[in-house]
């Protein structure tokens, strides 16, 4: 069996717009429709014209402008709605009237208060009226998956007799499961006379997170149109996500021999266009278009990715228009990814340097959720020096307030073990510097103190630069930490350790050199 074509029916502008907070005005709908045309969807359901004058105008404008795809408009199975839908669509190159009526006993009894016979009559009349305007008529049996299967056979038989060209079998409340849905499609294909001459469509909601799985199961059972929305927006938990349906069919063509006409490289941009228009961001772990869809954080995965991307990616980010794979450096990363990033930043590290950098990196990643390039540069600048840490910060405590002296308590590790001192000062930094002086026996005079945040966010790393004079000689020191008092002490100690190193080695003050 060759590859068969699946019609992608996009309902972002209709069912998608029913997503709370996703209403779009005429300009926004037009902008989105243009992007959907670029994406290459087969059908754009542009709106529900009877709902409002704005929706009518949007459907009309899209029908006038987007000439390539079929433009569909939704309407209830009543004359007023059908007439209004046609009025909005009449200038479309390829118009489709999409009319619907609920067919489940629950909806018939409680919502429509109609008998099955009355429903069949409304379907006959509604589809017939739509057909009098337009060749292309879709009929949806709302709540089909909770409808009696034999009654559905009657419903679709009537719809075909009245002229429907597309029969939609919606899982309106996201209730079905793949196996059952496939069986329903098969049941209809076996029982509805003339069904081979029309297109079977599916429209799945995501209440149980099964919208895409159900859509694919239905396709395997014979459905040839999938109704879906960009980013999966839609009533309640949303609709089947267009990008997931399209990419599942593309990536797994080996088991599902179906093709779509979607220009896959436009997927990401389309997703972003919608997010920008609605202001509703895509969840980070959303398949295909989420920020993390092509991000790898853990060391084992990153090592695999660096060896060959096929180890952990089933499609390339470029294939859906995402610029690149992202190796996120964080708590779970390993040496391979770290070395690679240092190399990209212009700091190729040898094994010993890498081990040291990795130690600093893991320490920092216990404090920060994500490590940015600036953090790595701080590690190189602050950590990869060859200055022996004669005095090493063990612990630190500082208190300060508006009506009290600041006090600092510092514990340093030395060759002879840990030692602790306290001191007071004008502020917490001044107090901890004084405590350090007591511990080292050196008296430093602060010449310069600069601090800046080198990463963004509330947990930013602050980098402190100090110039400290010891016995008439100035030494620079740098320190970085998410805690600015700690960064200050580290910078001060860095300068102090340089003094001791310089004195012992009888060397001039050292500066850390980054590799070119
Ligand atoms: C599953 C889906 O997504 S269906 C599409 C949902 N989309 C929308 O509802 C679009 C936005 N809706 C609207 O603007 C309004 O609801 C309108 C203009 C459609 C109707 O507004 P109102 O006339 O005030 O009716 P309301 O929405 O309160 O109730 C729906 C009415 O439509 C009837 N109805 C519902 N579905 C259908 C149908 N497919 N065919 C015929 N009548 C229907 C209901 O029985 C009810 O009728 P009643 O007023 O005689 O009791
Ligand atoms: C009108 C139909 C297609 C619908 O939106 C649904 O059943 O969810």
UniProtKB/TrEMBL annotation:
Pathway: Amino-acid biosynthesis; L-leucine biosynthesis; L-leucine from 3-methyl-2-oxobutanoate: step 1/4
Keyword Nucleotide-binding recorded: no
Keyword Disulfide bond applies: no
Pyruvate carboxyltransferase domain segment(s): 6-268
Pfam families xrefs: HCS_D2, HMGL-like, LeuA_dimer
Span list, region Regulatory domain: 392-516
Entry keyword set: Amino-acid biosynthesis, Branched-chain amino acid biosynthesis, Cytoplasm, Leucine biosynthesis, Manganese, Metal-binding, Transferase
Enzyme Commission code: 2.3.3.13
Known catalytic reactions: 3-methyl-2-oxobutanoate + acetyl-CoA + H2O = (2S)-2-isopropylmalate + CoA + H(+)
Sequence positions that bind Mn(2+): 15, 203, 205, 239
Cofactor annotation: Mn(2+)
Its job: Catalyzes the condensation of the acetyl group of acetyl-CoA with 3-methyl-2-oxobutanoate (2-ketoisovalerate) to form 3-carboxy-3-hydroxy-4-methylpentanoate (2-isopropylmalate).
Subunit structure: Homodimer.
Family listed: Belongs to the alpha-IPM synthase/homocitrate synthase family. LeuA type 1 subfamily.
Record-linked NCBIfam families: leuA_bact, PRK00915.1-2, PRK00915.1-3
Protein known as: 2-isopropylmalate synthase
Organism, scientific name: Geothrix limicola
Gene this protein is translated from: leuA
């Amino acid at each position: 069996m060759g590859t068969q074509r699946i019609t992608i029916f996009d309902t972002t502008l209709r069912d998608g717009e029913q997503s709370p907070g996703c209403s779009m005005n005429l300009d926004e709908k037009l902008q989105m429709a243009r992007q959907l045309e670029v994406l290459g969807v087969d059908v754009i359901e542009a709106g529900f014209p009877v709902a409002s004058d704005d929706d009518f105008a949007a459907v009309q404008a899209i029908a006038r402008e987007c000439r390539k795809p079929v433009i569909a408009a939704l309407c209830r199975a009543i004359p007023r709605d059908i007439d209004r839908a046609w009025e909005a669509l009449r200038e479309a190159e390829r118009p489709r009237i999409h009319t619907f009526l609920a067919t489940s006993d629950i909806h018939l009894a409680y919502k429509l208060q109609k008998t099955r016979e009355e429903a069949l009559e409304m379907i006959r009349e509604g589809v017939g009226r739509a057909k009098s305007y337009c060749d292309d008529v879709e009929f949806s049996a709302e709540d089909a998956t909770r409808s009696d299967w034999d009654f559905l056979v009657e419903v679709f038989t009537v719809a075909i007799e009245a002229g429907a060209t597309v029969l939609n079998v919606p899982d309106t409340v996201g209730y079905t499961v793949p196996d059952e849905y496939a069986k329903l499609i098969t049941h209809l294909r076996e029982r509805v006379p003339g069904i081979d001459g029309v297109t079977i469509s599916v429209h799945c909601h995501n209440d149980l997170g099964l919208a895409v799985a159900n859509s694919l199961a239905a396709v395997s059972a014979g459905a040839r149109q999938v109704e879906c929305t960009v980013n999966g927006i839609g009533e309640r938990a949303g609709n089947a996500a267009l990008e997931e349906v399209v990419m599942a069919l593309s990536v797994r063509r080996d088991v599902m021999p179906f093709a779509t006409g979607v220009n896959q490289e436009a997927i990401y941009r389309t997703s972003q266009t919608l997010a920008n228009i609605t202001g509703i961001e895509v969840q980070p772990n959303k398949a295909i278009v989420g920020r993390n869809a092509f991000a790898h954080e853990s060391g084992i995965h990153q090592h695999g990715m660096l060896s060959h991307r096929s180890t952990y990616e089933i499609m390339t980010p470029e294939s859906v228009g995402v610029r690149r794979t992202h190796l996120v450096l964080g708590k779970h990363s390993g040496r391979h990814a770290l070395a690679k990033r240092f190399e990209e930043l212009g700091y190729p590290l040898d094994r010993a340097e890498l081990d040291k950098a990795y130690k600093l990196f893991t320490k920092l990643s216990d404090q920060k959720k994500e490590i940015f390039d600036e953090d790595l540069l701080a590690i190189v600048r602050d950590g990869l020096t060859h200055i022996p840490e004669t005095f090493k910060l063990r612990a630190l405590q500082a208190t300060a307030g508006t009506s009290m002296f600041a006090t600092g308590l510092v514990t340093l590790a030395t060759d002879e073990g840990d030692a602790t001192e306290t001191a007071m000062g004008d502020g917490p930094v001044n107090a901890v510097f004084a405590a350090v002086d007591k511990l080292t026996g050196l008296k430093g005079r602060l010449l310069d103190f600069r601090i800046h945040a080198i990463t963004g966010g509330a947990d930013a790393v602050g980098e402190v630069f100090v110039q400290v004079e010891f016995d008439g000689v100035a030494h620079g020191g740098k320190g970085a930490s998410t805690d600015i008092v700690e960064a200050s002490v580290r910078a001060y100690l860095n300068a102090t350790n340089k003094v001791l190193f310089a004195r012992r080695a009888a060397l001039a003050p050292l500066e850390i050199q980054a590799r070119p």
